[in-house]
Amino acid sequence: MAVRTTSSNLINRTMSSLRGFPTYSASRLRPCSLSVTPNTIAAVQTEPSKDDIRQPRPLQALHLKPLKRQAEFGVPSCDLQLRSFSTQPLEFFADFALRAAYYLGLPAYGPVPLPRLVERWTVPKSHFIFKKAQENFERVTLRRLIQIKDGHPETVQLWLAYLRKHQYYGVGLKANFWEFTQSGLDLEGETGDARMQQLDASWSHLGQKISLGSVSKVEELLNSQRGKQAAGLQRSPAHS
């Protein structure tokens, strides 16, 4: 059986459903004006999202290659050799050393891969009846070279000390350090004797033997009670 719905029935049902809602007269309704300016549109369009926020520079630099400074004269100051049995810690610490050199103002070059060191050992596999069976062991050492040029000696020493303090496990360090002085007359050598005389008082306190001094001090030491007991003398020695 088909049910026909007329427009009057729909109006009655709609009115009955709206009886519980409050009604407003036309006098109580006020027009609302919304002002939209170009600045408002630009602010809505340029609102940054979480993906668009820029990371801090030090954190962003971790994903980039380490920065390097250019040497002016190209005079080598230090050769740092890194050694390890695996590649990952070696590459990680080489990157760390380059970044530390950049922030200390040192021109660093590298890392340059060096030839591998391959060591092999052949030992008996077991004892007694199995001693004829032998077993081979192999150890491969990976190396990288970082060179510092035009570096101040104190700055290079500070760089090496910082690397030793934060040395990564499984990575060995070997450094060759050069220090240069000006050529020509050694003007500082003229005052070398005067400096050595100033250090005599300090050097006299080092070592097991103390300088005896003059002849009178030696005679006074021998005539003392402790000197007599040590030498087995009951009376002071006669003067020659």
Automatic annotation (TrEMBL):
<keyword id="KW-0689">Ribosomal protein</keyword>
<dbReference type="InterPro" id="IPR036838">
    <property type="entry name" value="Ribosomal_uS10_dom_sf"/>
</dbReference>
<dbReference type="GO" id="GO:0003735">
    <property type="term" value="F:structural constituent of ribosome"/>
</dbReference>
<dbReference type="InterPro" id="IPR027486">
    <property type="entry name" value="Ribosomal_uS10_dom"/>
</dbReference>
<dbReference type="Pfam" id="PF00338">
    <property type="entry name" value="Ribosomal_S10"/>
</dbReference>
<protein>
    <recommendedName>
        <fullName>Small ribosomal subunit protein uS10m</fullName>
    </recommendedName>
</protein>
<keyword id="KW-0687">Ribonucleoprotein</keyword>
<dbReference type="GO" id="GO:0006412">
    <property type="term" value="P:translation"/>
</dbReference>
<dbReference type="InterPro" id="IPR001848">
    <property type="entry name" value="Ribosomal_uS10"/>
</dbReference>
<feature type="domain" description="Small ribosomal subunit protein uS10">
    <location>
        <begin position="79"/>
        <end position="176"/>
    </location>
</feature>
<comment type="similarity">
    <text>Belongs to the universal ribosomal protein uS10 family.</text>
</comment>
<dbReference type="GO" id="GO:0005840">
    <property type="term" value="C:ribosome"/>
</dbReference>
<dbReference type="GO" id="GO:1990904">
    <property type="term" value="C:ribonucleoprotein complex"/>
</dbReference>
